[in-house]
From TrEMBL:
Protein name as catalogued: DsbA family protein
Gene Ontology MF terms in the entry: isomerase activity
Keyword Nucleus annotated: no
SUPFAM superfamilies hit by this protein: Thioredoxin-like
Organism encoding this protein: Bhargavaea beijingensis
Native organism taxonomy: Bacteria, Bacillati, Bacillota, Bacilli, Bacillales
UniProt entry keywords in alphabetical sequence: Isomerase
Database matches in Pfam families: Thioredoxin_5
CDD domains for the chain: DsbA_FrnE_like (cd03025)
Length: 308
């Protein structure tokens, strides 16, 4: 404040800068304690089908409890290559075994998965898109979740091989980044080191299955949830780790902002985020966009909503 410019008002008894706000002298101050936060570690992989399946629940959880969460996405390293790989629990020993498993996951979760690329153009390694994720995260952490989402859409819904250079460049270009430079950097030893740091974090968290979500408080007490779970399971875990009372769920952001950010949402995601039924989604979206500035596409029996 410049004392040479102070003017004293005889009526209010206030000396201050002319034109300064709050000339009445009354002002509401908020001394409330900041809401307690937990660290959320999400151990995942771009080609993890169950990770795709929990997109509706994960988005709803992180949006509703955003004031209580610091979210960290950790790559888990699902498939380095096919040499000696075997997932005996799901009967997978080669690429061709993945398709029926994926289709079953998609049908159960209502997050559509084609999976026929495993017969024609199989993913050779999940480490490739995982390294791109780490490079994007290095250059702009805010774009890393968007990259992961777009990669999963291309793989699961649109049946494209995200271990291929062209697809990865297209995705990163679409985020406003230099796709060619990002993908080239993802092939360097430095990018592999970034990925291995995530693997060490996953090991420290005890994440042996994907997806794994770990919630930890400031006292280093934590709750670990492995596998796909309903929204209520994540809410209960958050209650367990917070030490200063029950977490307060915020209202979800309006659909215009969510769809503007995400670009595409499946019906199931809108249902879980806003707590509405499948039958209510079409009218809900129409009310949110009275100008009709959205379009839909049927993907394996599920409705995909997109902005025009």
């Amino acid at each position: 404040m410049n004392k040479d410019n102070l003017i004293c008002d005889m009526e209010t008894g206030i000396c201050g800068v002319p034109g300064e706000a709050n000339a009445t002298g009354f002002q509401m101050l908020d001394f409330s304690k900041p809401q307690e936060k937990a660290d959320l570690y999400y151990v995942t992989d771009p080609i993890c089908s169950h990770c795709w399946a929990i997109e509706p629940q994960f988005r709803a959880f992180t949006e509703r409890y955003r004031e209580h969460l610091n979210v960290h996405i950790v790559m888990g390293g699902l498939l380095e290559n096919w040499d000696g790989f075997a997932d005996r629990a799901n009967g997978i020993s080669g690429p061709e075994d993945v398709a029926p498993h994926w289709r079953e996951v998609g049908e159960q979760s209502r997050m559509p998965i084609d999976g026929s690329l495993w017969h024609t153009d199989p993913v050779t390694s999940s480490f490739i898109p995982s390294r791109v994720f780490k490079v994007v995260q290095k250059h702009d952490p805010s774009l890393a979740p968007a990259f992961l989402r777009r990669a999963r859409e291309e793989l699961f819904a649109f049946n494209r091989n995200i271990s291929g250079t062209a697809v990865l460049k297209e995705i990163t270009d679409g985020l406003g980044l230099d796709g060619d430079a990002i993908v080239k950097e993802a092939g360097t030893p430095e990018a592999q080191q970034l990925l291995e740091e995530d693997f060490r974090t996953a090991a420290r968290l005890g994440a042996r299955r994907l997806p794994t979500i770990v919630l930890a408080n400031s006292n280093q007490q934590s709750v670990k949830i492995a596998g796909a779970r309903p929204l209520e399971a994540y809410e209960e875990a958050l209650k367990q780790v917070l030490t200063e009372g029950k977490p307060v769920a915020a209202d979800p952001p309006n659909l215009q902002s969510v769809l503007g950010k995400e670009k595409r949402l499946f019906s199931k995601e809108i249902e879980v985020l806003y707590g509405i039924s499948r039958e209510e989604v079409a009218s809900f979206v129409a009310r949110a966009f009275p100008d009709g500035s959205f379009e839909t596409e049927n993907i394996l029996g599920e409705t995909l909503y997109m902005l025009k």
